[in-house]
Design a protein that fits this description.
The chain is α/β, with parallel strands linked by helices and 453 residues long. It is 44% helix and 12% strand. It has 2 domains: 25-54 and 304-445, Aspartate Aminotransferase, domain 1 (Alpha-Beta Complex); 65-300, Aspartate Aminotransferase, domain 2. Strand 3, helix 6 (141-147) and strand 4 form a beta-alpha-beta unit. The protein binds pyridoxal-5'-phosphate.
Length: 453
């Protein structure tokens, strides 16, 4: 009877917005789910080789105890809160950015959001103009702009400028746009290249921004992971009238899943009001206990600041060693990072061989590397590069963060030799994964399609 009823029910046609057809589920999330599943079991019978996961950018450490404890202590806070965030947190963020990043903000210029991803999307939704995205870029800027039906201008960056945006490239993009205002997303330190801009480079970009009416979304979510923080300069300091600085708890404080981001806006009442209209009509407010936990993250507590310095040193060490090992592989070029936890790796030297053995684009190559070498990389097409560009993002965080941090504090490796020994002892999946890549390309160089070992 029930069966018949179901059978008779007509399937309803649901019409969907067509502009979403061209947007895929973010490759980093898709590959992360895939590797989690594969880690339980390889599809090849009898295979027990581990998987090496370099396709996802999550801090490997637990958040600082002070933030976790504050979350626990505030679990009873359950009321809706002001959309912009609690006053204490907005003030703490403003003070933090003024002290540490040398901004000149007031608490009223700070908005708290569920992740910096959300505030970037809202900023795009309220501002007019083409979106200028330097590439290779973070995976989410393009889909965000496309969801909002905005025009996008990718700006291809080059090795000779260390994959940094130059004033000439920015000016050219502004001249190509039909609008009289443009929105630049400037990610510094950069995901995926690890580049960090100097003060002079930012000043030169600010000159072009002023000349061509370019608003900057300065995505500085990796700021406190800068390997030499004394060299990090915020675009909010250089171009305060046109920059919205975004950040949060996810990367330097390792609490991505808490979903708390911040935006520090120019002192522009209408812009802030429009952002709050969208925020209030979509997410209402960030979860109350999380806002109180974030207060501990932005109050300059000594232990939290030390945590960020220690973990940035670990990223610096692993990034430098991983870049060195990758650059030692014949025909492979990797960027040397100055912040964050990513490298940008170029396999294009092997483009002809890869195409000859049937791997016609970078997504095919990355799929094949997972199958054959159990090694996951994020393909260049997700970084807004052409499909046949064989460049990838390599996240160097596949290790047990808590064990590494504890041993780092105990051993305090300082010489190059000590740090290399530390890397080999505590980051075996990264070390071995790079050897897998080397073995793979040695076969490609011989014109062979590599096979599962
Ligand atoms: C460059 C960049 N910007 C923004 C984000 C988003 O961070 P959040 O967790 O604050 O949304 C990420 C996260 O991967 C990122 O890599």
């Amino acid at each position: 009877m029930i069966f018949n009823l179901f059978n008779k029910r007509k399937k309803m046609e649901i019409k969907l917005e067509h502009h979403l057809d061209s947007i895929a589920i973010p490759a980093n999330l898709r590959i992360n789910d895939q590797i989690k599943k594969y880690r339980e079991k390889c599809s090849k019978i009898g295979c027990h080789r581990p998987y090496h996961h370099f396709a996802f950018g999550q801090s490997p450490f637990s958040p600082p105890a002070e933030i976790i404890n504050a979350l626990r202590d505030n679990a009873n806070k359950h009321s809706y809160l002001p959309t912009a965030g609690i006053a204490e947190l907005r003030k703490a963020v403003s003070d933090y950015y003024n002290d540490v990043f040398k901004l000149q903000s007031q608490a009223r210029q700070v908005i708290i959001s569920p992740g910096s991803k959300e505030i970037i999307s809202i900023i795009l939704s309220v501002t007019e103009g083409d979106v200028l995205i330097p590439t290779p870029s973070w995976v989410s800027y393009l889909p965000q702009a496309l969801i909002l039906k905005k025009q996008v201008q990718p700006i291809r960056l080059h090795e000779d400028s260390h994959f940094k945006l130059t004033p000439a490239l920015l000016e050219k993009a502004a001249n190509n746009s039909s609008h009289d205002q443009h929105i630049l997303i400037l990610n510094n330190p950069n995901n995926p290249t690890g580049a960090v801009y100097t003060e002079d480079e930012l000043k030169a970009l600010a000159t072009i921004c002023r000349k061509h009416n370019i608003i900057v979304i300065a995505d500085e979510i990796y700021a406190r992971t800068s390997f030499d923080f004394s060299k990090f300069i915020s675009m909010g300091k250089i171009f305060p009238e046109g920059t919205i600085v975004t950040g949060g708890l996810s990367k330097d404080r390792s609490a991505g899943g808490y979903r708390l981001g911040i935006g520090v806006f120019p002192d522009n009442e209408k812009l802030i009001k429009d952002v709050l209209i969208v925020a209030g009509s979509t997410y209402s407010c960030v979860a109350a206990p999380i806002q109180y936990a974030a207060l501990a993250g932005f109050s300059r507590i000594e232990a939290v600041e030390k945590y960020m310095t220690d973990t940035a040193r670990i990223h610096a060490t692993i990034g430098r060693i991983a870049a060195g090992l990758l650059n030692n592989i014949h025909g492979v070029k990797a960027t040397v990072p100055y912040g964050g936890f990513y490298l940008y790796v170029d396999f294009n030297e092997y483009a002809e061989e890869l195409k000859t053995i049937g791997l016609t684009n970078c997504a095919n190559l990355c799929e094949h590397l997972i199958e054959v070498e159990h090694t996951a990389l994020l393909p260049g097409n997700s970084l807004l590069l052409p499909e046949d560009d064989f460049s990838v993002r390599f996240s160097f965080v596949d290790y047990d963060g808590d064990a590494v941090l504890e041993n780092w504090k105990r051993e305090n490796p300082s010489s190059e030799q000590e740090q290399t020994a530390f890397f080999k002892a505590y980051c075996p999946l990264i070390n071995q994964g790079i050897q897998n890549i080397e073995r793979y390309f040695s076969q490609v160089a011989e014109g062979r399609l590599p096979v599962h070992a």
